[in-house]
Amino acid sequence: MKLLEERIVKDGQVRPGNIIKVDSFLNHQLDVNLLDEIGKEFYRIYKDDGINKILTIEASGIAIACMTARYFDVPVVFAKKAKSKNLDGEVFTSTVHSFTYGKDYDITLAKKFLGPEDRVLILDDFMAVGKAMHGLLDVCEQAGATVCGIGITIEKGFQPGGDSLRAAGYKLTSLAIVEGVDDEGNIIFRPQEG
Amino acid sequence: MKLLEERIVKDGQVRPGNIIKVDSFLNHQLDVNLLDEIGKEFYRIYKDDGINKILTIEASGIAIACMTARYFDVPVVFAKKAKSKNLDGEVFTSTVHSFTYGKDYDITLAKKFLGPEDRVLILDDFMAVGKAMHGLLDVCEQAGATVCGIGITIEKGFQPGGDSLRAAGYKLTSLAIVEGVDDEGNIIFRPQEG
After folding, report:
1. Minimum CA–CA partner of A21 in chain B
2. Which residues on chain B are in Cβ contact (under 8 Å) with A58?
3. What's the CA gap between B58 and B80, in Å, rounded?
4. Integer Cα distance of B38 and B44 in angstroms
5. Which of B71, B47, B51, B33 is nearest to B122 (CA)?
């Protein structure tokens, strides 16, 4: 997605340790016009896949999921990272290792919000090693839901998450795939059609 | 907001301990059409207040903030509840006590995203005792930003958060104020104009 790549070049940074900083528009401050374009693009890609629910994980994923769900006119459900006192009833759980925070955490999702009747588009802002995504896929499998697509805003192409899920047969689309930086510090994107 | 009150009656529950369950449309599963109407209503209320930024806190607040920001055409910035390795640079912090989770936590916001030039609308899904809101107000004060309004989706009218902030002079609007339940278990709302 040209608009997103241009924005990453303009306002993003790739830091030592392969950290991609896009906090001015994607995951701390949010540019809702850009998010709206992202939602429109996910709709273009997945509109014929019979999606009836969008699944994401708190926190930044919620913004992308909501802006995309407007186009699909379907509900969003988001997995929670902490167990709330108020999250009663039966829940699906899966354990995820976070490299960002350096620890394991459980994600939870109320069973009443995901089931065999659901055709799910999973959305998230980032894909690196793919640990959080594996947690969401695990939850979908427990629910008997069909995963029709995975939409990632920015994929770290130099980490294995995206390519291993494509190899496993998922219809995974990343709107920008960052491969690294060249010697002049320019961000290198994987060429994609569209 | 009539539409919201009707939805709370239809799909919400008030539980022992004064827990209001609205997880089927507001804070676990999200009804984006309802969120869009909520955003439109906040815009109607605050459109003449010169808002140039919407501030919220992860996680559910992000959904409401994004859907509202579309109408204002301004960026959203959300305070984070956990310190990320990737959140470098100078940050504002404030300590918040959560009754839901039964512990204190720090909220953080990068200094570069909030300053004296900002006229802020603070949005959140719930207001009870108001601890999280006091953290956000504290961050705004540290930043020198002007708080032009506070928009709450559901206020627990039987808890002091909302009324104490109104008494302090804030332009605080709650789209639904739940006062409790009557003897037949019907939810009682505080009468409001509009």
Report:
1. B86
2. 58-59, 62
3. 6
4. 10
5. B51
In chain A, residues with a C-beta closer than 8 Å to the C-beta of B82 are: 101
* Residues A66/A55, Cβ–Cβ less than 8 Å: no
How many domains does chain B divide into?
1
Residue stretches of the annotated binding site of B: 27, 128-132, 156
A77/chain B closest Cα distance in angstroms: 4
Is residue B96 included in any domain, yes or no?
Answer: yes
Measured CB to CB, residues of chain A less than 8 Å from chain B are 19, 21, 23-24, 28-33, 35-36, 58-60, 62-63, 65-67, 69-70, 73-78, 80, 82, 84-87, 100-102, 109-110, 112-113
| B105: phi then psi, degrees, rounded to nearest 5 | -145, 155
Assigned domain for B194 exists: no
What confidence score (pLDDT) does residue A88 get?
Answer: 65
Bridge partners (DSSP) listed for residue B174:
B152
Q: Which of A23, A30, A80 sits opposite B110 (nearest CB)?
A: A23
Domain extent for A47: 2-189
pLDDT digits (tens, 9 = 90+) for B31-74: 999 999 999 999 999 999 999 999 999 999 999 999 999 999 99
Provide mean pLDDT across the span A51-66.
97
CATH number for the domain including A32?
A: 3.40.50.2020
ipTM confidence score: 0.94
- Inside any domain, residue A194: no
Task: Mark yes or no for CB contact B62/A59 under 8 Å.
Answer: yes
Residue A104 lies inside a defined structural domain of this protein: yes
Q: In whole angstroms, what is the distance from residue B187 CA to residue A60 CA?
A: 33
The DSSP element (H or E) to which B149 belongs, if any, is strand B146-156
C-alpha to C-alpha distance for B115 and B77, rounded to whole angstroms: 12
Question: What confidence tens digit (pLDDT) does each residue in A70-87 have?
Answer: 999 999 999 998 765 555
Residue B99 has what pLDDT? 75
Longest Cα–Cα distance in chain B: 54
For B118-168, the pLDDT digits (tens) are 999 999 999 999 999 999 999 999 999 999 999 999 999 999 999 999 999
Closest approach of A70 to chain B, Cα-based (Å)? 6
Query: Which tokens hold the place of A125?
Result: 């802002």
A29 vs B113: CB contact, 8 Å cut-off?
Answer: yes
CA distance, residue A35 to nearest chain B CA (Å): 9
